[in-house]
Amino acid sequence: MNFKTSLQNPDLGKLLLRLGVGFVLFLHGFWKITGGMASTVELTANNGWPGWIAYGTILGEFIGPLLVIGGKYSRIGGLLIGFNMLMTIVVAHRDIAFKLNDYGAWMIELNVLLMLSGLAVAFIGAGKYSLSKGNGAWD
Q1: pTM for this entry
Q2: pLDDT tens column, 48-83
Q3: Are 118 and 78 in contact (CB under 8 A)?
Q4: What is the 3-state secondary structure (H, E, C) of 105-127?
Q5: What does the pLDDT look like over 14-23, one tens digit per residue?
Q6: Which residues contact 118 (CB under 8 A, 6 or more apart)?
Q7: Around Cβ 50, how many Cβ atoms within 10 Å?
Q8: Rounded to a whole number, what is the distance in angstroms from the first to the last CA of the chain?
C-alpha cells in the first residue's frame, strides 16, 4: 500500500466531515437549549422576524447535528443544518454578507462553511462508520 491508496477512504472522510460540522453546531444548540435562547429570540425580533422563528435553531443546531454525528438520518440532519445556516445569514448577518473583516476574511465565512458542509452531508450520506452503516435511504 502506498501513500495515495492509504488516503482513499471515503467513509473515513464522511465520518470526519460529520463529526466536524456536527460537533461545532451541537455546542451552539446545547447552549441555546440550556438557557441561551433569549438572545437569539431578541436578535430575530430586532431584525424584523417573529421571535418564535428563533426556536427553529434548535432543529438546525441541536437535532440536525445529533443526526449527522450519529449517522442516522444524516441526510435530513445535513439539510436541517444547511437551512439553519442559510437563515443565520438572512436573519442575523445580511448586513455583513458581502463584507470582509480587518484581515481580509469574509465575515460570514463560518456560516457559509457550515451551511455547505451540512449540504455536503445531505448529498453524500453518512458512510459505513455510522449507526446506519450507510444503508438507510436517509443515511
Answers
A1: 0.93
A2: 999 999 999 999 999 999 999 999 999 999 999 999
A3: yes
A4: CECCHHHHHHHHHHHHHHHHCCC
A5: 999 999 999 9
A6: 21, 64, 68, 77, 78, 79, 80, 81, 82, 84, 85
A7: 9
A8: 30
